[in-house]
Amino acid sequence: MNKLILVVVAVLLLGGCSDDWGWYVVDPTTKQGITNLKFLASGLYYTVLLSVTAIVISVITGLLVALPGLSSNRYLRGFNRVYVEVVRAVPILVMILWVYYGLPQLLGLSMTVFWAGVIALALSDSAFEAEIFRAGIQSIDKGQYEASHTIALNYVDTMRFIILPQAIRRILPALGNQLVYMLKMSSLVSVIGMQELTRKANELVVTEYRPLEIYTVLLLEYLVLILIVSAGVRKLERKLKTNQRES
């Protein structure tokens, strides 16, 4: 929060340095400023919904892709490697455009802007999630697998009750980083018309012709949002560590 205060102070100081700057467009003490700020904040709902939906899907997909990579079957490992390398090689912006304009034509279906953004972001992030899960699972001692076999647990139960709970504790910081990454990358969905934070800022710039002032507010919106998410992830990490010590 100290960083946020410093940024706000710097913006206010800079605002008085030039008569050419029009901070009045985002001045909360004026009717016009309040209207503009509300318009900018109205994109927050879709930014959060888009990011959370995409991260949930990408985590599930990443786990499903990671498990074949741990198999002794070379074909399953090959599937994992090809998927990860191909998906990681495609820029997110290109993926968004391809999913929105190309996928409906390829499959013969209609797709909303929201779900096109979700699918594109989830698909792009799933390759990174797969590598995070693979590394986390491989970090668990082999003795854990042997112990599960002695109590007659099958592969699914071993993963569900023994391996994954331990792996998730270890990879939680990386998963938190991916959520922050997803929040930032959601701004790219504005190119296909998604009414999230960046799109709202772009529309306001067109009407007010004040890009510096409006994009500064946009920057602060993302900063506050990401600081809140980061604090939540750190709190969850501490809670998991506490539970682990108590058990």
What is the topology?
Elements: H1 2-15, H2 31-41, H3 44-69, H4 74-89, H5 92-107, H6 113-138, H7 142-150, H8 155-185, H9 197-208, H10 211-246
- Which architecture per CATH? Orthogonal Bundle
Overall tally of structural domains: 1
Classify the secondary structure makeup into a structural class.
mainly alpha
Distance between the termini: 33 Å
- In percent, how much strand structure appears in the residues? under 5%
In angstroms, what is the radius of gyration? Answer: 22 Å
Number of strands: 0
CATH topology, what is it called? Answer: MetI-like fold
Number of helices: 10
Following the backbone from N to C, one meets helices and strands in this order, namely: HHHHHHHHHH
Average pLDDT works out at 88
